[in-house]
Amino acid sequence: SSKSVAAAADDATPGKPICTYEIVTIQPSGMNDGEPPRQAVSVEDLTPHLQSFLSSSAMKNGAIHVISRHTTTAITINEREALLAQDVEDFFLKICPPDERSSSKKRVGGVRYLHNDIDQRPDSEEEAQRCRDNGWDIDDAEELQKWREQEPINAHSHLISMMLGSSECIPVVDGEMV
Hints:
By secondary structure, the protein is an alpha+beta fold. It is built from 5 helices and 5 strands, in the order E-E-H-E-H-H-H-H-E-E.
C-alpha cells in the first residue's frame, strides 16, 4: 500500500519550499510484490521511513502529515509490539470479519457484505463511471467480467479503515518528531 508523506516547514525563506510531498510504498509484512491481498490486518512501523524523510528534509520545526492513498488501509499512531499487533488484528476481525466468500483463513460463515456481491457490480452509474475512468471498458461484457474477476472481496478492509482513519499529523520540534 502507498502512504503519502508531506512536511510543512517553518522556514518560509522566499524560494525555499515550505512543503514537500513524497510517496512511500510500504509492503505489508510477509507479503511479496505482485502477491494478491491476504485480507488480513497488518500492523506496520512507519517510524524508520518517517525519520529518514525528516532527516533528508532538514526541517527543524513543522509537521509531517501521513496519509494513506488507498481506501482499505489506515493510519494510526501506537506502539509496535508483536502481541499488541496480534490483539489489533483479532479485535478488528471480530468487529469486521472477512466475508464467507473471502479467501481469508479467518472468514466467517454467514457473514456477507453487499460490497462483495461482485456479480452485481458496478451497481450505479457513479461506480460504472469510476471503472471507466480507471481504464475498464465495462460496457463490453468480456471487459466487465475481467474487472469483476480482479475485484477483491474486501468490504471488511474498507470498514476497518473507516474506523481507524486515513491520516495522522505529527509535530516536529527541533528536528524531532514529538
